[in-house]
Design a protein that fits this description.
Blueprint: H1 2-31, H2 41-63, H3 65-72, H4 76-97, H5 101-115, H6 128-147, H7 151-172, H8 177-194, E1 198-200, E2 206-207, E3 230-238, E4 245-246, E5 249-250, H9 251-259, E6 277-281, E7 288-293, E8 313-318, H10 322-335, E9 340-347, E10 350-352, E11 366-369, H11 376-382, E12 395-396, E13 409-414, E14 432-436, H12 443-448, H13 452-455, H14 458-464, H15 466-473, E15 478-480, H16 481-512, H17 519-525, H18 528-546, E16 558-560, H19 565-569, H20 572-584
Parallel strand pairs: 1-15, 3-8, 3-9, 9-13, 13-14
Antiparallel strand pairs: 1-2, 4-5, 6-7, 10-11, 11-12, 14-16
Length: 598
């Protein structure tokens, strides 16, 4: 009798401990939304405690599953909910650190939920809130799979989500029925827009290619002592209307964030020696080790992330207010270590000025629209009549960036009003480069590509995947893989030659005193990501200069400081490679000789 009481008491303690861990985990998870979105050190300790508790909770339910099943009534969807929260933690940790390995960890937990069918009986619980959790799980899993380019799985998940939404709306007739239908349409539109050019196997099935940076795709560089800067902080801002988006990621943001990341490794643990915990999952995936959980002891001392970080830290901002944008810029600048550079990428619609004779290039030429939300300040401005000279408050003007040029800054503007950013002065003598998209797209091209605005910007596509972009402007819809690889060889040759010419320009300047290329480019050129962007910009400029359809100067990109024309942008060797590539793609008729393209 004593033994039985002892066993029951032990079971009761296990249930109480589980309830305590479950409640604590929920409190910590709910507190994550109150953490500041910017800065590095403010949130690390809290994230660590949250990971610690979820690690304990996950292992505890594994070790005591039979008791929790019989005494607590633990259901499979509750296990799935814990796994889903851990997946969310990993995803948000990826967003805050930019380390792509944590995407793999999030994927593993989400995949385990699907593989073990934890939510399979959710509809039978007669709880609409539980079905909503299941639908949200699907949406989050799809985002992670998109970022990892698991497109076959994405399409399977979309079919399943479609079925689950139909089941949810038929059973409960909920008020959010339309919202979930819009989510489904949004993701379908995003998948369609993402596949700008199809690369095909011999059996005509599409191949999914990654465009993250890898040792094989990193442009070569002849190093010099002047190449002193590394990219440390990034702001990726998407404010373009009518562009395909999903989960606050526009197509341009989606492409650019991958361009600024390295290929994820299979295991984050090998690269992160300070990470303390390993989740051994005996239930979701048969004892597989699920990589690493960054617990409270898993951070680098003193917030110094540079020792093992693969990627620059980045913020993703979808249609931010101007105040949000400036706060994040200031935070990025504050976090810059010595020798670090900040990159601002903005994809946005233009705010145009009506000033006929501008004197202040900082504020009288217009800028870029940020958030389309309106507040009380607008009514006060508009009521004063048409003669007012107040500026649009929901706009980023070139002058807004002047204070941030106190540190090395690399700016990319993709907009129909991009050229107004070419006049930013270097008041503080720091390295500054601005790459600007073409402002116009040829009418004939728009007539053929009627959905072009929805599918993302051409300029960003060039920076993301140069070969995809040249196929796109030449209306090549699909390319067999063997042919793609051959054409990629021409792109690689172009990049190698352009890199050599940039270095040559600098050597000539030192030896002959001829100012061929601004020192800002040289200082940025030692960083793999910034060098890639500069050389892909050169590729874009040469392609559009030679393309018969892009005649006007506003239909080609610009940069400030200007890159040398004769020694680089119009160099015969680069034009020759582009024409060879055009011949290989069987689109030579789209291109003129270099002398004709002027």
């Amino acid at each position: 009798m004593v033994k039985m009481e002892s066993s029951e008491e032990q079971d009761r303690k296990i249930v109480l401990e589980f309830c305590h861990l479950l409640e604590k985990s929920k409190q910590l998870f709910n507190g994550l939304r109150d953490l500041p979105q910017y800065g590095h050190r403010q949130w690390q300790a809290y994230f660590g405690r949250t990971f610690d508790v979820y690690t304990k909770l996950w292992k505890f339910q594994q070790q005591h599953r039979l008791i929790l099943d019989s005494k607590y009534g633990l259901k499979r969807w509750q296990i799935g909910e814990i796994a889903s929260k851990i997946g969310q933690l990993y995803y948000h940790y990826y967003l805050r650190t930019s380390e792509t390995n944590y995407l793999n960890e999030a994927y593993q937990f989400y995949a385990a939920i699907r593989g073990r069918a934890y939510y399979s009986r959710a509809i039978k619980e007669d709880r609409p809130d539980l079905m909503v959790k299941k639908l949200r799980y699907y949406a989050r899993f799809i985002v992670v799979c998109l970022l990892l380019k698991k497109m076959k799985l994405v399409r399977e998940l979309v079919v399943e989500l479609d079925k689950q939404i139909a089941e949810y709306t038929t059973t409960y007739e909920p008020e959010d029925q339309l919202e979930w239908s819009l989510v489904l349409e949004e993701i379908k539109g995003f998948i369609k827009a993402e596949a700008a050019v199809a690369v095909l196997h011999a059996d005509t099935n599409p191949i999914v290619l990654s465009h993250r940076l890898s040792p094989l795709t990193t442009p070569p560089c002849e190093r010099s002592p002047h190449m002193t800067l590394t990219l440390q902080e990034i702001l990726i801002v998407g404010s373009t209307c009518e562009q395909a988006k999903f989960s606050e990621l526009t197509m341009d943001m989606f492409r650019m964030l991958q361009t600024l990341e390295r290929e994820p490794q299979e295991s984050a643990a090998a690269h992160h020696p300070h990470v303390s915990h390993v989740v051994h999952d005996a239930s979701p995936a048969g004892g597989r080790s699920y990589g690493c959980v960054p617990g409270s002891k898993g951070y680098i001392e003193n917030g110094d992330r540079r020792h093992y970080r693969d990627n620059p830290h980045k913020y993703l901002l979808y249609k931010p207010s101007i105040s949000q944008l400036l706060v994040f810029l200031a935070s990025g600048l504050k976090e810059l270590p010595p020798g670090g550079a900040l990159l601002l990428y903005m994809s946005a619609d233009g705010c145009f000025s009506t000033t006929k004779h501008p004197e202040d290039y900082g504020y009288e030429l217009g800028g870029l629209a940020t958030s389309i939300k309106r507040d009380g300040t607008d009514a006060g401005l508009s009521s004063r009549g048409k003669s007012t000279v107040f500026k649009e408050p929901h706009c980023l003007y070139p002058g807004d960036l002047y204070p941030f040029t106190r540190r090395p800054m690399f700016i990319i503007i993709d907009s129909d009003n991009s050229f107004v950013f070419q006049h930013i002065p270097r008041y503080f003598g720091q390295p500054l480069v601005t790459l600007m998209s073409p402002q116009d797209i040829p009418i004939a091209f728009q007539e053929i590509r009627t959905d072009m605005q929805h599918h993302g910007s051409l300029f960003t596509l060039f920076l993301h995947s140069p070969l995809t972009a040249i196929c796109y402007v030449c209306h090549v819809g699909d390319v067999p893989i063997h042919h793609w690889e051959r054409c990629q060889g021409y792109v690689d040759r172009f990049v190698t030659e352009a890199s050599r010419l940039v270095t040559r320009c600098r050597i000539d300047e030192i030896e002959q005193g001829i100012g061929y290329i601004d020192s800002s480019y040289v200082q940025f050129f030692g960083d793999d990501f910034l060098r890639t962007l500069i050389l892909r910009f050169v590729f874009c400029d040469v392609v559009l200069r030679l393309h018969r359809g892009f005649r006007g100067r506003h239909q080609r990109p610009r940069c400030e400081p200007p890159l040398p024309a004769a020694e680089l942008l119009e160099h015969p060797s680069l034009s020759h490679i582009i024409l060879q590539l055009a011949s290989a793609l069987d689109v030579r008729g789209h291109f003129s000789e270099g002398s004709e393209g002027e």
